[in-house]
Amino acid sequence: MGVAFPKDFLWGSATAAYQVEGNNTNSDFWAEEQAEGSPYADKSGDAIDHYRLYREDIALMASLGLKAYRFSIEWARVEPAPGQFSKSDIEHYRDVLLACREHGLVPFVTLHHFSSPQWLMRFGGWASPQVPELFSRYCEFVFQELGEHIPYALTFNEVNLPTMLRAIFTKIGIVPPVGIDAASWSAPKWRESAAALCGTTPDKYVTFHMISDETKIGLLKEAHRKARETIKRISPDTQVGFSMALSDIQAASGGEAQAEARWQLVFGQFADMAEGDDFFGLQNYTREVYGPEGPIPPAEGAELTQMKYEYYPEALGNVARKVAKTLSLPIFVTEHGVGTDDDSKRVAFIRRGLQGLQSAIEEGIDVRGYLHWSTFDNFEWNSGYGMTFGLIAVDRTTQERKVKESARYLGRIAQSNTMN
């Protein structure tokens, strides 16, 4: 007999507009792809053409037994120029929401999933003091038009990711503007080119991924609070939160202080941002182990994913427990997945991850849903199309969808609300 999950537990999968829709030409990420010397492995192009095929895709998810669909609305489409809103694009997203309803999928909407309008860079990007007001204005339009159809909303996806990316940025030649003035900020030619494509200069070209110092984090927190207030004023029944990317931070002998500092960096400093929210979005993929000198790489012979981090599904339940020690909010797992071309590994990842999550729930942790990343193999940002996270494969020549066993496996769990 299977172990039952809580009544009304939400089961589904997730996408991000930029990664699946295709041709988001007004986005800052499009500029980065097209920039001279861009480090992106591929150009997104048509992506998996979800902007056109969304109705077929939603019907497919429902046919598999899934009960919820997390997707994002692309700010750069909805507001292609400052203060100018696209009626055709908001009608598109209205129909996405209606298609979810028709097929029995609960929509879980993200208002900002990394990508921003190119015009925002001319204001100074995410370093601009105007950001909270500009983002709130966009949210106001979306909810005036669509609020009645949106039961759950994330303002931002992975607010803590920029702090995790600083080391990566440095390795590829970017010195992030953290505690230094713009005049001394150096950037490789491709970012200069990307800034020019957005109609601005490198000192103003501050993308979401560069929110890693105290001032910009403060602006982000204000943007979240202002957006939440706007959403709740227009649509009081919409449940509002944000998500964070959280590895299971573990300490080897003598590494306790290092692990604690890392947890504070990636979680603790953002915890106050959740005050007044309705839920917390937890996103987990792996663990990180710290010793006295810092991070310890995976042991020799440890299984790695396509992204080169450790295959460790058990991290999910552990992180839920850690979050619950600080936040007394319901938790939704808004992403959990694995980059692998061996779908049996994905099935096992889901099973083992859910076993850990179920154990945490039995201990009293209030977890309300599980949304797997990702619905489809899609555009994985600077890694291009080489990373395969999807429950459903896509032939990008024909855009044909091919259901994997992992999709059927998760669908069976969703249908029964139990895991054998």
UniProtKB/TrEMBL annotation:
Name any one Pfam family assigned in the record.
Glyco_hydro_1
Question: Where would one find the signal peptide in this protein?
Answer: none
Can you list the GO cellular component terms from the UniProt entry? cytosol
Which GO terms are recorded in the biological process aspect for this UniProt protein? carbohydrate catabolic process
Keywords attached to this entry = Glycosidase, Hydrolase
Q: Which GO terms describe its molecular function?
A: beta-glucosidase activity
User: What family name appears in the similarity comment?
Assistant: Belongs to the glycosyl hydrolase 1 family.
Protein name in the entry: Glycoside hydrolase family 1 protein
Species this chain originates from: Cohnella candidum
